[in-house]
Amino acid sequence: MRATLLQIDVDPDEKITRRRERVAGLVRAQRGADLVVLPELWPVGAFAAEEFGAQAESAEAGPTAEAMAAAARDAGVWLHAGSVVERAPGPDGKDALYNTSLVFSPDGALQATYRKIHRFGFDRGEATLMSAGATPVTVRHPSAVLGLATCYDLRFPELFRLLVDGGAEILVVPAGWPARRLAHWRLLVQARAVESQAYVLACGTAGTHAGVEQSGHSMAVDPWGEVLAEGGTGEEAVTLDLDPARVAATRRDFPVLRDRVLGLPLPQVR
Questions:
Q1: Which residues form the CN hydrolase domain (predicted)?
Q2: Which of 145, 150, 157, 238 could form a disulfide with 231 if both were Cys (CB 3.0 to 4.6 A apart)?
């Protein structure tokens, strides 16, 4: 299985319409890949919170979805198109924003969406402007089951356990991760792979937007925690071949997942 992580430079001086066109061209250049992955919120920038409302779009029929569907179809690839700022009715029926990932099949059909569950920012930015997703998502690729997560989700292992329980063999994580926490990025990507005994494909952005330097360093990690490929700090394509059968082999040969003990009581402070 050939996978390509497209580490996009999100330049605030580049018009979003131009970036969509440019990224669509990069996707089209990946003909022959089995899976192409883009970063989190690459059309607008993960930290450009002041632009979220103005750049919000439909996950099914917005300009990014339409451009990425066409690019996936032209290249004949499965495409995890990163995420967009989605505008949609919230649980109360009122207008809401979500950080929503889009997955397209080679015929350009939208196969899955995932609304980011854990929003970053604490009392500002994404955490206050966007609504939280509520449902973990897996999607069946011809070679393996993909489990979907986004950026800050990496810090919450409970989500990844649910994805594994849902059959995930490859965990796909688009991100807009700041350079100042690069050490955490590397540590958490590898930790999620080791504890899940799954591949992790983590695709970040490059450049600086909203004054926040991005870490880049998109990574592919195998079920044993070995880093198979890692990007640098600029825009680039990180391409590798992986063997989904290694997931089952690792889980069979080192069967830690079967030793999980669930439903333990909370400890009492003594």
A1: 1-244
A2: 238
